[in-house]
UniProtKB/TrEMBL annotation:
One of its GO terms (molecular function) is thermospermine synthase activity. The keyword Signal applies. Keywords: Polyamine biosynthesis, Signal, Transferase. Belongs to the spermidine/spermine synthase family. CDD domains: AdoMet_MTases. This is Putative spermidine synthase. It comes from Bradyrhizobium oligotrophicum S58.
Length: 307
């Protein structure tokens, strides 16, 4: 999970990376080096953060309010839950990219009868999420230690919602950003199901990522979320605003979500992806057989850190 949101008050101070150690008032709870990440867990009450070191920079992956487990301090994690108003049914949810588990845990708490499965590649991330971020195994809540694409490929299940929030530094792992991957995801959606993905808009791959998901899913809605973009994609016809508004109102009332679907719907954006005015017309659809050598090497190493 990647956070680039600008958050006010104490949380903004908490998320910032200090220019020098003396200026950083956070308390380092634990640091670990795994096969995949250099992981640091910080605390500045009431918030805890899980951060990854990548190419001499620090990226905040997850933020947890220790006084309020239902708080989603970071904007994009809230907008990932907008997917709930799109799906025909809510029986099963799959999340690829767990991090500190805040989005999955929030949905589990408000939808306790729904099967929530999250997949995380790094076992050390899971260890620290359980130790510091209030995560535990419960009925209808399960976290699998597996590569997300391999998990979907091997799964016989179909899901009403698939959330994609896997990051390595500032980038989504390439094998989770190709046309073949999105086709695999589509094949594992239940009837009326949707996909939501968190995408960092300032990277050079953003336009290609939009074109690629659109090559599989004809409908893509955009939610600007504090510096990130959440894309909600689905097959079939466009879900009309009035229909979404009705579902949002019903499900807000039924489940009592902290962050109202109706409020998020007001931020929905539709753009013409094909006319080249917003998304670069020269951007390429990403495929498994066309990837940077560095990305292919990473995939061969099962996404482990390069020496």
């Amino acid at each position: 999970m990647l956070i680039r949101s600008v958050i006010s008050g104490a949380l903004a101070s908490f998320l910032s990376i200090a220019a020098a150690g003396a200026q950083d008032t956070r308390n380092l709870l634990e640091s670990k080096e795994s096969l995949y990440n250099n992981i640091y867990v910080y605390e500045q009450a009431p918030y805890r953060s899980m951060t990854f070191g990548h190419n001499r920079r620090i990226y905040t992956e997850s933020v947890y309010n220790t006084r309020d487990e239902l708080d989603l301090p970071v904007d994009y994690t809230r907008f990932m839950t907008a997917s709930v108003m799109y799906t025909k049914d809510i029986r099963s949810i799959l999340e690829i990219g767990f991090g500190g588990g805040r989005t999955a845990w929030y949905l589990h708490r408000f939808l306790p009868k729904v099967q929530v499965t999250s997949v995380e590649l790094d076992p050390t991330v899971l260890e620290l999420a359980k130790k510091y971020f209030g995560i535990k195994e419960e009925p209808n809540f399960h976290v699998a230690n597996r590569d997300g694409r391999l998990f979907v490929q091997e799964s016989k299940e179909r899901y009403d919602i698939i959330l994609i929030d896997a990051y390595r530094g500032p980038f989504v792992p390439f094998h989770l950003l190709t046309k073949e991957f999105y086709q695999l995801v589509k094949d594992h959606l239940a009837e009326g199901g949707v996909v939501a993905q968190n995408v960092e808009p300032s990277t050079m791959l953003f336009d290609a990522a939009v074109k690629t998901i659109h090559s599989v899913f004809p409908q893509v809605d955009f939610y600007e979320a504090g510096g990130n973009i959440v894309m909600v994609a689905y097959p079939g016809d466009e879900r009309k605003p009035e229909d979404l508004a009705g579902i949002a109102q019903e499900r807000d009332k039924e489940f009592g979500f902290r962050y109202k679907l109706a409020d998020m719907l007001a931020q929905r954006k539709r753009i013409d992806i094909d006319n080249g005015q917003v998304i670069d017309a020269k951007a390429k659809v990403l495929t498994d057989d066309f990837a940077p050598v560095e990305a292919l090497k990473t995939i061969e190493r099962h996404n482990r850190k390069l020496p």
